[in-house]
Amino acid sequence: MADATAPARPAKAAVVGCGVIGAAWASRLVLSGVDVAISDPSPQAEAIMNEVLANAVTAWDDLGLRTDQRGTWRIASSIGDAVADAEFVQESVPERPDLKKAVYGEIETALAGDAVIASSTSGIKPTELQADLAHPERFVVGHPYNPVYLLPVVEVVGGEATTPGTIERAQSIYRSIGMHPVHVRVEIDAFIGDRLLEAVWREALWLVNDGVATTQEIDDVITYGFGLRWAQMGLFETYRVAGGTGGFRHFIEQFGPALEWPWTKLMDTPPFTPELVDKIVEQSDAQSGHLDVRELERIRDRNVVGFLKVLEANQWAAGAAVAAQRQGQAQD
Amino acid sequence: MADATAPARPAKAAVVGCGVIGAAWASRLVLSGVDVAISDPSPQAEAIMNEVLANAVTAWDDLGLRTDQRGTWRIASSIGDAVADAEFVQESVPERPDLKKAVYGEIETALAGDAVIASSTSGIKPTELQADLAHPERFVVGHPYNPVYLLPVVEVVGGEATTPGTIERAQSIYRSIGMHPVHVRVEIDAFIGDRLLEAVWREALWLVNDGVATTQEIDDVITYGFGLRWAQMGLFETYRVAGGTGGFRHFIEQFGPALEWPWTKLMDTPPFTPELVDKIVEQSDAQSGHLDVRELERIRDRNVVGFLKVLEANQWAAGAAVAAQRQGQAQD
């Protein structure tokens, strides 16, 4: 029975751009029961989709989610063909504003007036992306994290012309496919997550550039250390606990002054010389080159599935998204 | 039977400073079969130790590690009393160089000549800390991540006067209590992990300061997003996978240019005004204030134990440290 308060799952959606991210969006949509039309000029698109969908099915099976209520999918002959009867479009083409805007032009020509257009951009402001649209009010950023079929978070960001109704509808659509939308209320470059990731990336480049640590050593400090914390409590909640019974004010009193210490000065970006690129590539090969990237993807998915099960059993953090998804499937 | 290549576990160790970190060190040592003498001027030290050890026992029980081969522990009457017969000293007093140096003076007066002194400092260079020691060659930084009794990583950093033998011995001691030492070969402020964490903290402060996101929203992006990845693959391995079959060079070609984008300019630190502190404290209270910090610690430990079990079953990342620990216990 339909629940009036249930999130509005679209019957038909279009995915424009079918690389790793686009294919993972399509897989999440298909497994959630949505019929998906995919547009991508590459002859590899169908193979990528088959590969990523197979990974997604394995992951959902392992997680104990149903995979027998799938929607259909097809590779469309053009963007117009893909979006013609779509209620929702997710765009995941390369991060070039000119390319994205050209794609939106093609989408608008064929798209029904009330469909939402969402972009997977990880950093370009929606106000810039929507500038040339005839109907910019229905454009929104929906920035996911890979693997999109497993990680629940999606950053929803409106531009100056985006209406509150579009933000609402996008969030509702994302919830209907098991995601946890976070509305980024102020439009900034890189949104929330990539602001944080960009900062880490910059520091990590310095560490490799200066010969302080290899990619393996940096990754070890993350995976044997604070990465284990961040799968379940973020920066602030972790530090709250570190502050002990004194609460966050006590933590800031202890730790805040460290912001004035010299290491905060290391904030410019190392020049991306061929030597630095070679160094990183060689270290990454030494670290992970013995495993095929497809094998790494399967390992990653097995691990993340395990974490999500733990969190669901403990009724904590991302476990809530999986529990809601499981409940939603039971009601279908 | 003793294995000549087995890491050298000390019979007796001293823990100087028994706050959250010191007590967690003492707990890991005790559960690993080491007799520990604890020195801390606070009347709360014994209560903190009892509380943290109880958490550690629960965590190890849940993880399926033996907790019946414990060493003893006692609160010593002075630093001299604590270290007199110790083979290894772990110092975890507050992050003030003057205080730490004064403590080292007291330690040296009573300590046997061949014992290693390790500091838990999260950012002060060992060359500075060892400057006044009569035997600086046996001083080293051993920087852990909380909860120390669960997270395996420890950054081992020598100062200019530290001998290679001391680095070796410290790593061996840490391995003997189930840890994964990462030798930071170049002495820099904040070492590896806190360089990364400091960068995230700075960006997060800006996001709160500028009203872009609340502490809850930032933590959600982490725990429903990239935090789930980082418990099992670090920055570089994750991006290698994101680069697809093209390897890391392909990833850098795609993503490297983003470093030149405007968001990399947001690199100074927001002033720590009372208003900013109030804002963070209020948001953190709204996010986590309904849970006692002790309850948060237990939740964290249950989650991390679950992740470690998943990783051990999948023979991946920090799972290796747990497997080695389990094997070590079986041989005892």
Class by alpha and beta content of chain A: alpha/beta
What separation lies between the terminal Cα atoms of chain A? Answer: 8 Å
Order the strands across the largest sheet of chain A as they lie in space: 3-2-1-4-5-6-7-8
Query: What name goes with the CATH superfamily of the largest domain in chain A?
Result: NAD(P)-binding Rossmann-like Domain
Second rung of CATH, namely the architecture of the largest domain in chain A:
3-Layer(aba) Sandwich
Roughly how many Å is the radius of gyration of chain A? 21 Å
The helix tally of chain A amounts to 13
State the main characteristics.
Rossmann fold; 13 helices; 332 residues; disordered N terminus; homodimer; alpha/beta; eight-stranded mixed β-sheet; 8 strands; N-(1-d-carboxylethyl)-l-norvaline Dehydrogenase, domain 2
Tell me what you see in this structure:
The structure is a homodimer of 332-residue chains. Chain A is α/β, with parallel strands linked by helices and 332 residues long. In chain A, 50% of the residues lie in helices and 11% in strands. The first copy, chain A, has two domains: 12-191, NAD(P)-binding Rossmann-like Domain (Rossmann fold, 3-Layer(aba) Sandwich), CATH 3.40.50.720; 194-290, N-(1-d-carboxylethyl)-l-norvaline Dehydrogenase, domain 2. Mean pLDDT of chain A is 88; it is low at 1-5 and 262-266. In chain A, helix 1 (20-31) crosses helix 2 and helix 2 runs parallel beside helix 12 (293-313). Chains A and B meet through helix 7, helix 8, helix 9, helix 10 and helix 11 of A and helix 7, helix 8, helix 9, helix 10 and helix 11 of B.
